[in-house]
Amino acid sequence: MQRMTDQPARWSQATVYPDMWADPDDDPRDRDGAGPEGELATLQEFLKDYRTTLRMKCEGLDAEQLARRSVPPSTMSLLGLLRHLAEVERDWRNWITDGDPLPKLYGERDADFDKAVADQAMVDAAYSDLAREQAATDAALAEHPDLSERLGKDGTSVRELMVHRVEEYARHCGHADLLRECIDGRVGQ
């Protein structure tokens, strides 16, 4: 078994630009033409691209690789990131409601990372949970297209929530870059 402290050879699947994750023609995040029109559409596009990036960083790995931890004492893994972001998506819906909060998906604090183990059923559930929670949060926020609208008990603005969503995914995509490189040496944007 390869440990995270071993140094696999660095490689990229890209052939056009060797520092990229995928060739531009194969990259689902690359689009021709002008970007989206307006602030909300721009935030949604960035969020979509970071969600895609996270999935790309996890592609082609088995359950053991996805569950592989970074460096002790951290419990961070790609599988933990998938579970964490499902948990966070659910929590963001708690921010915009006046009702009782939804329960945590994985139990006590940090269980999303701490209990992520190399089990294919857990991997499949993590992908399913993330897709479901993303869709539910997207649907809840679609009812509030005014970025200055304030929601929930704390009066969080839709803009603040959207920016925080982009920030959360972007930060964790950076973690995913390092985790993936340690697993099999694959690098790229």
For the largest beta sheet, what order do the strands appear in spatially? Answer: 1-2
CATH homology superfamily name: dinb family like domain
CA(first)-CA(last) distance: 27 Å
- Principal-axis shape equals flat
Number of helices: 6
Contiguous uncertain segments of 5+ residues: none
CATH topology call: Four Helix Bundle (Hemerythrin (Met), subunit A)
Tell me the CATH architecture: Up-down Bundle
What's the number of structural domains? 1
Computed Rg:
18 Å
Mean pLDDT: 90
Number of strands: 2
Give the % helix. 40-55%
Largest sheet: 2 strands, antiparallel
Residue share in β-strands: under 5%
What is the CATH C-level name?
Answer: Mainly Alpha
N-to-C SSE string, H for helix and E for strand: HHHHHEEH
Kindly name the structural category: mainly alpha
